Amino acid sequence: MKKAQISLEFLLVLGFAIMLIFPATLLFMNFVSTSSNEITSIQVQNIGETFAKNSRAMYYYGDGAFIEITINFPAQIDGIEIQQNQLIIESTTNIGKSASYFNLQVEAYNNTFPQEDVSEGIKHFIIRNDNNTINISRIKK
Fold first, then answer.
1. How many CA atoms lie less than 13 Å away from 127 in the CB half-sphere?
2. Distances (CA, A) of 94 to 28, 90, 104
3. What letter would DSSP give residue 104?
4. For residues 46 and 102, what is the distance between their CA atoms, to the nearest angstrom?
5. Which of 11, 12, 91, 133 is deepest in the core (most CB within 10 A)?
6. C-alpha distance across the termini of the chain, in Å
């Protein structure tokens, strides 16, 4: 009888421990997923603001002004394009696909960057003022 009681108590303690560990694991996984989405969102925001801020600066410096910028792209960015003075960054998170829009506030050439220009890693870009129209292109080093 004593061995059966010990076995039953062991099973109850083990079951209780599993009941505590399972929800804690789910909460942790949810936290990691949410954090990953927030990090991607912040990185996209920083990239867009960097392009927009430097585009405005080069526009106001005048014709011929240029600056080289270095950007570290995360893996979640799917594409970047410029349409009607708007910078559009498309990205994918655990929630799904999204597009972030940044108003350059200056005239810019329409451009769609190839996938290799926005793939994960460090990339170099030049923002140039050509006849008071901003041209953004990648420098391949």
1. 23
2. 15, 14, 28
3. -
4. 11
5. 91
6. 77
> Half-sphere exposure (CA, 13 Å, Cβ side) for 129?
16
Name beta bridge partners: 83: 86
- Residue 131 is given by DSSP the state T
Per-residue pLDDT tens digits for 84-108: 889 999 999 888 899 999 999 998 9
Strand-pair category, 97-103 with 66-73: unpaired
H or E element in which residue 9 lies: helix 2-61
pTM: 0.78
Six-digit token pair at 139? 């420098």
> Strands 111-112, 97-103: parallel, antiparallel or unpaired by DSSP?
unpaired
Distance of CA 79 to the CA centre of its chain: 11
Q: What kind and span of H or E run contains 116?
A: helix 115-118
